[in-house]
Amino acid sequence: MRQFSHQLVQRISHFLDMDVSDLGMEVVDPPNPKLGDLSLGCFPIAKAMKSSPVEISQKLAQQDWQLEWIEKVVATGPYLNFTVKRELFSQYAIQEIKDQGTSWGDTQTGHGKRVIVEYSSPNIAKHLAVHHLRSTMLGQAMANLFRSAGYEVVSWNHLGDWGTGFGKLLAAWDKFSDIDNFDSPKLADREDPVSDLNALYVRYSNEAKDNPELDDSARDWFKKLEDGDSLARERWETIRSVSMELFEKVYSRLGVRFDKVIGESHYEDGMKDVIDLLVSNHLLEESEGAEVVSVAEDIPPMLIRKKDGATLYGTRDLASAIARHEMVEFDRCLYVVDAGQSLHFRQVFGVLKKLGFEWADHLEHAEFGVMRLNVDGHWKKGKTRGGQVVLLHEVLDGAVELAANIVLSKNPDIPEEDLKEISEAVGMGAVIFSDMKAARRKDVNFDLDKILSFDGETGPYLQYTHVRFASILRKAADQGLSENDGKGLVEDEELQLIKRLLRYPGIIDKAAKQAEPSQLSQYLLDLASEFNTYYSKHRVISDNAELSGHRLALIQALKTTLGSGLSKLCIKPLDRM
Predict the structure, then answer these.
(1) Are 53 and 78 in contact, with CB atoms under 8 Å apart?
(2) Per-domain residue ranges for the chain?
(3) Shortest CA distance to 143 belongs to which of 519, 570, 574, 534?
(4) How far is CA 123 from CA 173, 203, 222, 478, 485, in A?
(5) Residues whose CB is less than 8 angstroms from the CB of residue 97 and which lie 6 or more positions away in sequence, other chains included
(6) Check: CATH 3.30.1360.70 for 2-84?
């Protein structure tokens, strides 16, 4: 819609002898199609001119617009309503999409601006669990959207790889070597080293309940780690390495990648600097033997150092934020973390502001709701299943298996290799889209049977729609038909589809600005729904070769747009299913 909006704004600027390009005017659909095809409110102009929007619209409607794609302009109250010449409007729209090709939808709105998106952020020595899915996929989609909107993006994985818990793990490695010696076979050579680590950690924790001296041993091992003891460091590095290898297998399946993977350990040296900074700014206060910083009247003080002198992950978040800005001078920095951490981030951001860091105003908590699983007929937070962690790779495997059964039932003769590829894409698409469909602040109910449906608002439904586009184009090619320029797209449903297509770049910008992938998800659902309505009324391939060519151009534009949108959500567009 931008090329048409730009032309309208240029003409208005000429008529009024003033630049109105920065007033944020938006071309929308009129509430009633009888009013016209496009509508533009005159409120921003009236405000700038200190005039009546009704008078402005009436004045503009009387002008000679001299745009060949406009048939007539009518003032309706404060709105300008435009009726378009459908042949030219459709032709220009189809050509614009065709000219941009694979870059269709990309904009330059964020040109010159830098954004950090931190997401996933798992703890090492643990499997990625189902509750990591939301941060991981929402964050990756945000990074994709920002890039499409022209921003320079740094995608960031802030690993949980430091803290007293690792002292307990190292102590368990040492104490239980007769039960499971991680040096024989070596941890890196094991089939599932993270599960082995977790089993030993649980054993140690259980025994520590009756043997408090084990907690002392854990603290001693963490002190060794902090002090750079060679054995402690070597084992910790091994734990980190095997964890990352496991993470990468899941990230690869999901289409997730990071520009930087930096753990909490990286900022350990900056902890002292942060505390010194708080002291020099007279912000550190004693509270019941611990040290805190008062943030605001409506925010509890932030705990900086415990009675025993130990720091917390919040203190490391202060150090990491300062170091991060020194590494990357950002215009926005988003923490894609669940809403349960809202208070924590209010404290962190508040303390940074009290330290005088102006860039703290550019820090954002892009919070999201929880994922809930159906446990014994009740929706429960997706972290546990009968008290046990629900592993993400198990959920993905289950989705792919179900997808294979569904695909096989629809296409019993599908080759094995094709079945494997399609099932993986459909399974991943189903899981990912279930997370992208709802506004990120809402809780999500994860129902595998429903999200794998080829009907309704699901990933497979969108993938199947893309397959339909590809199938139509293949059939046309087999019949020797080729695309035309789009002039013949004059039906009401065709105009509606073309207007929907033209709004795609604006959706990308809006979704990026609001850090809200569901804006794109809903757009794709609306696009698919409108196409299916159109397809039920009109034949694309008919005896009229010229009309078929125009409609094939529309199908190609739809395929380009849907494929682009799915890819930004990390969902693979399919040509066959």
Answers:
(1) yes
(2) 2-84, 163-247
(3) 570
(4) 18, 19, 16, 53, 54
(5) 104, 501, 557, 560, 561
(6) yes
Task: State how far the Cα of 177 lies from the Cα of 196, in Å rounded to an integer.
Answer: 12
| C-beta separation of 154 from 115 below 8 A | yes
CA distance 88 to 164: 68
Residue 332 DSSP class: E
Render the burial of 363-377: b for 16+ CB within 10 Å, e for the rest. Answer: bbbbbbbbbbbeeee
Going edge to edge, which strands form the sheet with 290-293?
A: 284-287, 290-293, 302-305
In angstroms, the CA 449 to CA 401 distance is 12
Q: Take residue 380 and report the two structure tokens written for it.
A: 């429960």
Give the torsion through C-alpha atoms of 239, 243, 245, 251, to 10 deg: -160
For residues 542 and 31, give the distance between their C-alpha atoms in angstroms, rounded to a whole number.
33
Q: Evaluate whether 451 touches 434 at the Cβ level (below 8 Å).
A: yes
Q: Is 478 exposed, middle or buried (0-12, 13-18, 19+ CB in 10 A)?
A: exposed
What is the β-pairing status of strands 152-159 and 114-118? parallel
Cα separations in angstroms, 332 against 116, 117, 153, 255: 6, 8, 10, 24
Residue 524: how many CB atoms within 10 A of its CB? 28
Structural Rg of the chain based on CA atoms: 29
Tens of pLDDT, residues 33-92 = 899 999 999 999 999 998 999 999 999 999 999 999 999 999 999 999 999 999 999 999
pLDDT digits (tens, 9 = 90+) for 276-300: 999 999 999 998 888 999 999 999 9
Given a cut of 90, is residue 489 above it in pLDDT? yes
The two three-digit tokens of residue 154, written as one number: 């740094």
Cα 428 from chain centroid?
A: 15
Q: Which has more confidence, 137 or 270?
A: 137
pLDDT value for 375? 67
Tokens 């009633």, located at residue:
32
In the chain, DSSP finds a helix count (H) and a strand count (E) of 20, 17
- What does pLDDT average to over the chain? 92
Is 338:443 a contact under the CB 8 Å cutoff?
Answer: no
How far apart are alpha carbons 484 and 495 in whole angstroms?
Answer: 16
Exposed e or buried b per residue across 95-117, where buried means at least 16 C-beta atoms within 10 angstroms of its C-beta: ebbbeeeeebbebebbeeebbbb
